[in-house]
Each structure stands twice: as structure tokens, then as C-alpha cells.
Design goal:
5-stranded antiparallel beta sheet; 154 residues; elongated; alpha+beta; Immunoglobulin-like
Amino acid sequence: MKISNLIILLFITPLYFSCTGLFQTYADNIEVKEIESVKLEKIEILSRTIFLGINLKIINKNSIDVELSNGSYDVYINGNYFGKGSFNDKKEIKKNNDTTISLPVNSKVEDALLNLVQGGYKLNYKVSGTVKVKANNSSFNIPFEIEEGKLIIK
């Protein structure tokens, strides 16, 4: 190996690993914090589909702005699969700040009714998935799982 190639290798290797660690630090400073609300958006009779809106709070503890670009997730009610959803809307989260994103979820009416019958008037819910975040021309997926209190049907 030529000495010039060795010098280049010795320069690039630490640079690569320091940048890799930097991106991981960005990911560690993004927190999917809590579900702020869950509401029934609409029911489509013909397609027999129920649409929920889940508002999810995400915190950016980084000293730079980051961008959410997309995500996918599954929703469980009383331990049973309820439905899934995804989003592709870009949303900026300012440095040392938080934002709330709306997660649309759809489920067949039959599945939703089964959850209601099994849960009575109190429904425990869980949302798990990933959100893709971009920071400084890099992107990374952040997995999350939130088990929250109860939906109370009145």
C-alpha cells in the first residue's frame, strides 16, 4: 500500500466513524413522547371503514432543526390489532422544541366492533411504529411504542 493511500485511509476512517456517531446522537435526541389525543374522524358506511386521528407529540432535543418525512405504525386496542396507518407529510421540528403530528388510522368496522365488545366501555390502546427523521443531509428511522391510558366510550 502506498504511503499516500495510507494517509488518506488514516484521515477518512476517523472522519467516517465520527460522523456516524454524530448521526446516532441526533437520533438519540428525538423522543416520541406521548399520545395527546385520539378521536373518531369519520365512518364510511359503504367501505365499512372507521378512521381515527391520533395526535402524537414528538420532541427534538437537538441543537439543530430536524425534519420528519414519513412514518408507519400499527394500532392495538385491548391487545388486539385494530388497524394501521402511515404518513408522508414533511414537518419541521425546530431545535429544542416539540411538535404534534396527526396519525391517520383506518380499520374495518368489524374489527372495531370486536374491540368494543371485548373491552366494554374502556379501551386500552397502543401505537407502535417508526418515524423517519432528517438532520444535516442524513436520515434515520426512529422506532416507537406507546401504551397509553384508556379511551372511554360514553
